[in-house]
Amino acid sequence: MQIEVSRDVFRLAQVFTISRGSRTEAKVLTVRVSDGVHQGWGECVPYARYDETLESVEAEITGLPDAFDRAQLMDLLPAGAARNAVDCALWDLEAKRAGKRAWDLAGLPVPGPEITAYTLSLDTPEKMQAQAAANAHRPLLKIKLGTPDDMPRLEAVRAGAPNSKIIVDANEGWSAEVYADLAPHLVRLGVALVEQPLPAGEDDALIGMERPVPVCADESCHDRASLPGLKGKYDVVNIKLDKTGGLTEALALREQALAEGYQVMVGCMVGSSLAMAPATLLAQGAMVTDLDGPLLLAEDRDNPLIFDDAGVHPPVAALWG
Fold it and tell me: What is the bridge-based pairing of β-strands 140-144 and 165-169?
């Protein structure tokens, strides 16, 4: 089996800011695997929060042996961006070999569209209200917060989009005190979900704390091994392919999380339609789908995902799977 890795850059439609910083482009790695007849591909987004760089992830991929399958890959690479791109490329390769769709190979029903969140970048309250007003037609908005002064931002977004469902992502930016102070206001403003309010290493403070709005684990949940540490803290887990290390583990994590009583959110890094495509299989029936990466880009792959009033649609075979 041959593996090729390339770096691709996609310009963003506008500056994207979270509590950790801003960016104007999405830098991704594209992996192609070939058996000499068929070729599959996948995409990953190395994330500095998890000590990943383009260089380190590329080195992990190029260090793989010449022959392995998806089951063996689970032992060859840890959960993370490198394994994700290779795993998704292998799913695509297997689908092409079999002449079937990836969901058929996974034993899943034919997927349909799912309403996805649209993310508003962290900014001043005035600019966030303008962002919200410009996107008030969308049914689900996700707000990037994570500072001690977030209340005016939240009020501004609700004023700008009075009828949209809102979820909040603090990106580990709040303290327990800030979260406790904001929690009642989240209810008042109709917030449906709070994502990772506290730093992953400090989230024991959530144990015993009142959670009037469901709290979702993002940075605190990577794969099935994360689940025991979430008990008593979270109500929802955010499954991202770049955290789980691919679709194989993500499907297993979804099954186990649901069995343990968690609800599921399916999220993404900022990447192209190729990165989102496998996640559309996970998103079926999820509490929240957050696969808006391509909507934040100024450019995308050929045969991109379709986004319309029904939501994000599953990929055509020419894109993936």
Answer: parallel
CA–CA gap between residue 89 and residue 194 (Å, rounded)? 32
pLDDT digits (tens, 9 = 90+) for 178-196: 998 888 899 999 999 999 9
Cα distance between residue 199 and residue 222, in whole Å: 14
Residue with tokens 């689940």: 227
For the cut 70, the answer to whether the pLDDT of residue 19 exceeds it is no
pLDDT of residue 18: 76
Proportion of the chain in helix, strand, coil states, percent, rounded to 5: 35, 25, 40
Q: Which of 196, 239, 246 has the alpha carbon at shortest distance from 220? A: 196
pLDDT score recorded for residue 232: 96
CA angle 144, 217, 41 (to 5 degrees): 80
State whether residue 5 is helix, strand or coil.
Answer: strand
Q: Which residues pair with residue 311 across a beta bridge?
A: 308
Cα 59 from Cα 215, distance rounded (Å): 36
Q: Could you please report the per-residue DSSP string of 175-234?
A: -HHHHHHHHHHHHHTTEEEEE--S-GGGGGGGTT---SS-EEESTT--SGGGGGGGTTT-
pLDDT tens by residue, 128-166: 999 999 999 999 999 988 888 899 999 999 999 999 999
Mind listing the pLDDT tens digit for each residue in 215-252? 999 999 999 999 999 999 999 999 999 999 999 999 99
Tokens matching residue 80: 């993370």
- Find all residues with CB under 8 Å of 239, minimum gap 6, and list them: 221, 250, 253, 254, 257, 264, 265, 266, 267, 282
| Contact of 173 with 153, CB cutoff 8 Å | no
Would the pTM of this model clear 0.90, i.e. be above it?
yes
For residue 6, count other CB atoms closer than 10 A to its CB: 11
